[in-house]
Design goal:
It is a single chain. Helix content is about 0%, strand content about 45%. The protein is mainly beta and about 190 residues long. It is globular.
Length: about 190
């Protein structure tokens, strides 16, 4: 069982309450959804979260662990939409509506290796090995072109940009990139062959 006693990032306002659970409560009549799919028939092991929506509806969600890497992150994040929560389970990321648990989507950063909520732009940015992707209140805001060959690392975040680095195989040294938070446009990054 993976550790799930992590703090919840509450950068953005939320209309729901949620908590990590280490195991399914033994006697519960709460609906239990398994992601991906929002199935009530069962699913893979993952992060277990109890959610209470603004209208008082309670439900459990099991969010399947990622399968691609041991270096994926796990966390629970508020989002620019106060009715949606974000769960990242060992690199597999999900958005789900607290009010309608069957309304969900997978995050387009697989595996998710870093998550950066940025209140100044009302976005949440996700990093995988080679790209960044940003979501706002209405969904996907932008996705960068490929920024690195592999092993992208975010090294600085401001209210204007994200700066990252990676190992450039052509120059055999560390290279950097800068991504504009408003547009997703970037300077620097990998060199084409």
């Amino acid at each position: 069982m993976m550790q799930t006693d992590m703090a919840i990032d509450t950068t953005f306002p939320q209309s729901y309450e949620c908590e990590w659970l280490l195991e399914t409560p033994p006697t519960t009549a709460l609906p239990h959804y398994y992601y991906p799919g929002a199935s009530v028939q069962g699913g893979r092991d993952g992060v277990l979260v109890k959610v209470r929506s603004e209208c008082g509806q309670e439900w459990l969600g099991t969010f399947a662990f990622g399968r691609l890497t041991q270096r994926g992150v796990s966390g629970l994040f508020t989002t620019p939409d106060p009715d949606r929560l974000c769960v990242v389970a060992a690199g597999e990321g999900y958005f789900v509506s607290a009010n309608t648990p069957t309304s969900w989507e997978e995050i387009l950063a697989v595996p998710t290796r870093d998550v950066r909520p940025i209140a100044a732009h009302d976005i949440i940015v996700f990093a995988d090995f080679t790209n960044l992707v940003a979501y706002g209140k209405t969904g996907l805001m932008w996705r960068t072109k490929r920024l690195s060959w592999d092993d992208l690392k975010i090294i600085e975040v401001t209210d204007v940009f994200i700066k990252g680095e990676f190992w450039d195989i052509l120059s055999e040294g560390t290279a950097t990139f800068v991504v504009d938070l408003a547009t997703g446009a970037h300077t620097g990054g990998r060199t084409e062959i």
